[in-house]
Amino acid sequence: MKRRKLLLGGSALAAIGFAAFGTRIAQSQNEGEETFEVSFSEDQWREMLTPEEFYVLREEGTERAYTSPLIDEKRDGTFICAGCDLELYASETKYDSGTGWPSFYQALPNAVGTKIDNKLIVARTEVHCRRCGGHLGHIFDDGPAPTGKRHCINGIALDFVAA
Fold it and tell me: Which domain holds residue 133?
């Protein structure tokens, strides 16, 4: 009985070690790879953005669910980056996912970039503005047709421009 517990415990420790090692490799592949057209110092970003915008866009934070007025935005128009005004999402691609954040099934062409996010136990696809690198949210594979994707976006990271 003791040998079985020892083997199971050792296997569990080995699995945890391999998972941590794999996470570190994935993180190192993401670090320092991208440069962005719009770039400012941390102090400049803090002057330009509200504290909430800075937290989400520059520190990869998440706003509380159901706090963004953009969840209920139904007019025709374009959702733009709150950091650099790049057009990111067309209103036609917005839908109600029931998650508490504005959701889209597709970004505009050449609007966003992605990277692996290993901050939680499972890897996720982080989505950011391709021009300034501002963190927008995450992309999941449970969205509607035609893409099957759900871009779950922090409303604080967006501004809306009506058509």
Answer: 34-162
